[in-house]
Design a protein that fits this description.
Layout lengths: L5 E7 L12 E6 L5 H9 L17 E6 L3 E5 L10 H17 L3 E9 L6 H12 L4 E6 L6 H12 L10 E3 L8 H12 L1
Parallel strand pairs: 2-4, 2-5, 5-6, 6-7
Antiparallel strand pairs: 1-3, 3-4
């Protein structure tokens, strides 16, 4: 799949202010600083489409990007960011839950996991919530260039082992730095689009 155009559309603080649900949406989420913005820029071939920040917790709204006037990429706030008031953290969680459970045109959720670390409870809990909600998803292990191949496989296997049946879903890995995984993620989007 070659993307011809990708443009920022809008940022929404809640479900009611999201764009009309008239195009398939592919949303990206993960812990803060997992590399969401860098991955979105890699997929679209635009270095400045999604703002990359060195500090966690930068994304505070649901950001929509139109692709070829046919479908959208959606950048969701990171989960588990501890800085900020309890009220602000709860608002983020409500916003994420409202979007994921109420957005009828959500075609697939890409849950990003930092491949450098063994399974983190917050990631396991979030994926369990996604499964329970029946939300279609793929796992994407990011920053693959920063870990040896053997350790990456070990961390992925350990993550899958945290679920009944060993987590039988499609697992992808990527590196925004080297471009690894870009083709496979775009192929997964193409397969969902049909």
């Amino acid at each position: 799949m070659n993307l011809r155009t990708a443009t920022f559309l809008t940022s929404s603080p809640d479900l009611a202010s999201c764009p009309p649900p008239d195009q398939p949406e592919f949303a990206f989420i993960g812990r803060s600083n997992v590399g969401k913005s860098s991955l979105l820029n890699l997929l679209t071939g635009r270095k400045d489409l999604a703002r990359v920040s060195g500090s966690p917790g930068h994304t505070k709204l649901v950001n929509f990007f139109g692709v070829d006037n046919r479908w959208r990429l959606v950048d969701l706030p990171g989960y588990g960011y501890a800085k900020g008031s309890k009220q602000e953290r709860e608002r983020f969680q409500e916003m994420i839950a409202e979007y994921l459970s109420g957005r009828m045109n959500l075609a697939c959720l890409f849950v990003l996991i930092d491949s450098r670390h063994p399974p983190q409870a917050i990631d396991l809990d979030f994926v369990a919530w996604v499964i329970e909600g029946g939300i279609p998803f793929r796992l994407v292990f990011t920053k693959a260039d920063k870990v040896k191949a053997g350790q990456l496989k070990k961390n992925i296997a350990a993550f899958q082992a945290g679920f009944p049946g060993g987590g039988e879903w499609e697992v992808l890995s990527c590196s925004a730095k080297t471009g690894e995984g870009k083709g496979r993620i775009l192929a997964a989007i193409t397969a969902v689009l049909g």
